[in-house]
Amino acid sequence: MRTNGHRLIIDAKAVYDSTESFFEQTGPREAFKSDLFRELMLWIATLTSFRDGARLLNRMRRAKDGIIETTLRNCVEREGAKIIQCMEGLAAGAAEKEGLCVDARATVTWERTGEAVAKGDIPTSPAHVDEQAVHAAAARLGLDAGSYDPADYELCSVNISSDEVGVRRQTDCRPRTGEPQLKRVQNSVVHVEVANEADDPGMASSSSYILTSPSVAGAFKVLFGFLCANGLLEKTLVFFVDGAKNLNGAIGALYGFLDMKVILDWYHLRKKMEETLSTVCNNTRYRNGMLQKTMPLLWRGDIDGAVAALLSMDMGMVKDKGRLDYLVGYLGRVRANVPNYMLRDALGLRNSSNRGEKANDLVVAERQKHNGMSWSDAGSTALAAVSAVQQNDELDNWVSHGTLSLQLVERTTPKREKRDRRRTETSYSNSRGKVVDVAA
Question: Considering the entire predicted model, what is its pTM?
Fold first, then answer.
């Protein structure tokens, strides 16, 4: 359907243009799209390539000369840029309602005075697991009474997982000209989750939301506004990270005045030990033996014991002393972020950032990390934003009203049986198919 646009001109100045004020802004020779078509277009763009998406849309509409690949890509990039701008604006507005703002140095300040917010300025009401339940679990595990603090085990916390993912970047010009170009486009994804009480004992209920940004600093700035919008600043914030220095620095700078803790993801710690000891030891059997000694200690949060085990290594079996010193230094650096994983697991608390990893897969990796794909900075960031909106069940709200709720979304899933932890409690295989009990 075609229609004429109207423009009101007063004193040679256009004061109203229906093609811009009434209809959405489009490119040259680009048709106006209904809300239903826009929603379908954005949803399909998160599932398949722009080429296949354009073919699918045209097939559904029985249109021979319908939308083309380039137009679909431009539309998605335009929508994604608007989503990012809207999310940042809503986050800033939510912080302002609390009298707070985040300055250029990524520091939270009082909007009225400009002074930095100090610890204790904002009242918090942290909740902890019942002390008797902690003591009972520790007794079952054989832990000494002085080796743990019951106040370290949070209840009704806000679990936050953050990760950064890179996809192949399109070159801006020929490689032989100009300065060296970046090879990856980075996207930061933050997954926020709060556990709920489910009426059905066989179901697990939680409320979650996914935030995206081109940078780590931008993601945590939006996260702060999101926490303000949902009234979560008074709760205990638990950040699950993979050990990246830029994440720890950004968290400490922005959230240090709140009741918060940072936990190193168990999977990444185990992977770090496995890979680094492979470069330290010159014998596979000896490497596996060292893993048998150190991993149960780390599972209990005993950094000193793990470091002592590493320093007692037979130097005749060490092929790279520098890598051994690096591993000892690494354990010292992450000491504050290594809890007693075993006791947390027994209490039913999280030890993993797997929610953040999965959010990365859903928002970025599954769509953008395929053979032959490369992305512009704006294109990758915009598509990640559209995918996040779709995962948050906000696509209809965005298309119909041009805004986001920025509120947690309740999700209910069947409970799964607890995984077997034998790999942690037993040694690593020293020979094919053979696993030796640690207790032995």
Answer: 0.87
